[in-house]
Amino acid sequence: MNAFFSPPQLPMTAANHVKTFAEIEAEKRAGSPYPKCTLWMRLCARAVDLVIAWGIFWAAGVRFGPVLAILYVLFADGIFEGQSIGKRIFGIKVVHLPTRSPGRKRDSTLRNAPLALPILLGMMPEVGWVAFVAGAVVIGGVETVRVLRDPLGLRFGDVWAETQVVDGKVVAASGVGVVSRDQTTATGRVTSRVMFAARHRRDRYGRSQTRRRRSTRCG
Questions:
Q1: Does residue 164 sit in helix, strand or coil?
Q2: pLDDT at res. 192
């Protein structure tokens, strides 16, 4: 009886297939031409940025220091075309994989959101320092393990922002460059203009053919 009223099972096709998290990550890896950046260079660059954030925290005082430190951590990788101060010193940069262009402040905010969480926890009254240290150890440990195990060195922030940290010297030697976001925008504008011109000519040709048929019928 239950089998009679059960809804029919649709065959699994490409249209109704729901991609898993692993499949999405595999697609992103397949679309990246850049080699994995060494963990040592990433840690050194991150250490410089954390020292700068710490200096901002103490220089701005207890009232504004945590907010300014969080803002620096969030936007740091978009300061110098995909580079924070630390990344610029060590010659590595963040690349937005779908456009293969340097990461911007939006990409930096998405990928660094997990790292800014310990500072936010540190703003809690009474247990702020304990929460900061605990959050830094947990999040830092999870992200480090993720970078070590991933073939491209993508941490969870990179998966969310669709970014990858690359070594500028290795990328230059491999011949696979990083395209400027302005060049990508300009190419898109030229393509849209060509498509608009072609569509305009097609519409004009269609209107002329319609008028010609009408004149033939009237004649």
A1: strand
A2: 44
